[in-house]
Amino acid sequence: MKEMSWFSSLQIVFTPRVRRLSRNLLFGFLLLWGILPAITQAELWSGTAISGMRDVAMAPNGRIWLTGKNGTVWKSDNIYASSLTAIEGSGFNRLAVDPDGVVWAVKSNGGLWKFAAGSWLETAVNEMEDVAIAPDGKVWLVGKNGTIWFSDGQGQQLNRIESSGFSRISAGPDGVVWVVKSDGTLWKFAANSWTQATVSGIEDVAVASDGLIWLTGKNGILWNSLDGGVTFSQDNEVSGLENIAAGRRGAWAVGFDGTLWHKFFSPQF
User: Fold this and answer.
1) In 3D, which of 88, 84, 131 has the Cα closest to residue 260?
2) Residue 267 pLDDT > 90, yes or no?
3) Is residue 97 within 8 Å of residue 87, measured between CB atoms?
4) Which architecture characterizes domain 3-264 according to CATH?
5) Which has the closest alpha carbon to 223: 211, 238, 169?
6) What confidence tens digit (pLDDT) does each residue in 203-242 have?
7) Rounded-to-integer distance, Cα 226 and Cα 209, Å
8) How do residues 160-186 score in pLDDT, each as one tens digit?
9) Cα separation of 196 and 23, whole Å?
10) How far apart are CA 134 and CA 152, in angstroms?
11) Where are the domains of the chain?
12) 128 within 8 A of 144, measured Cβ to Cβ
């Protein structure tokens, strides 16, 4: 494995400390005056110096995993992704991380692999397009033919959901699964039935463990929903985003140009 860093060692150590100190002072002042409960504890979307990426996934510990446009796989060394470590392997496209930290990845040829204990294991599953992991560890997949599958057996035995035409998938809490069709429509699968959402032109979807839903549009515009997909609000802070991942600490996204962006929630002390 090799390490890739985009900042000087001084910046990597010094910048987070300055940010933590500034936040401590700010939040101490806000708590003193009783203002903190009235404001949102979220940063603006910020671009990183990382480029050449294709997909991003968040692990339970807040660190991220990435696939490069050339099919390589990387993991961040901290929650800020100030440096990355390359993972041996090639040809990977989409990926997700389960509650135990096991990485599930789909290769460009449709094969499903998982990375655990420092090595890759090829599963018997093939002809897949996308992968998502539910909070309960269930593996959800989209086939290259647009069908939806899930597995309770570590990806070895699949069960098919009545479906067609899908391209992207994300699994949220309470067994709810959100899926994007190739035509840009967004659908919810819950209680064994499908419901179409009132949005269109969607490229990718990500659902955090608390149920917050993020969408990227085919035009690169970002949307989110705080009410379980009943309504969606446009996020005007950033544009040009293609693939997105969400977790309890915030969200990460990859732009059409391969750049990496993030938005943190709550103070990152």
Assistant:
1) 84
2) no
3) no
4) 6 Propeller (2.120)
5) 238
6) 999 999 889 999 999 999 999 999 999 999 999 999 999 9
7) 12
8) 999 999 999 999 998 999 999 999 999
9) 41
10) 11
11) 3-264
12) yes
